[in-house]
Design brief:
Keywords: Membrane, Transmembrane, Transmembrane helix. By secondary structure, the protein is mainly alpha-helical. Helices cover 66% and strands 0% of the residues.
Length: 102
């Protein structure tokens, strides 16, 4: 039940990261990457022949890397989210200009 709740929360969070016009395509791309991981996951015990620590390290390092990359996503609390890539470009340039000022 916990895994199902986490997956549902992940889909909601991921869907909110992308602009409205590209949301379906980009969410499908994320889902495809997840399904490729699900296909490859049963093969991880085969990595144990290189070292007993390799599967555990791999399965622990990938979530940590994705969590670290999530820190690069800008905080949008209290801001209007962009509806198109043009809105995204203008908001990105406005953010970079505002952060560049002392």
């Amino acid at each position: 039940m916990g895994a199902t709740m986490a997956l549902n929360a992940l889909y909601v969070y991921t869907a909110e990261l992308f602009p409205t016009r590209a949301r379906q395509r980009l969410l499908a791309a994320c889902s495809t990457c997840g399904r490729i991981g699900a296909i490859l996951a049963p093969q991880t015990p085969l990595l144990a022949q290189y070292g007993a620590w390799v599967p555990t390290t791999l399965l622990g390092a990938l979530p940590l890397a994705s969590a670290a990359l999530t820190r690069l996503v800008p905080d949008t609390l209290g801001r209007r989210l962009p509806d198109s890539f043009a809105d995204l470009d203008s908001s990105t340039s406005a953010i970079s200009v505002s952060t560049a000022l002392p």
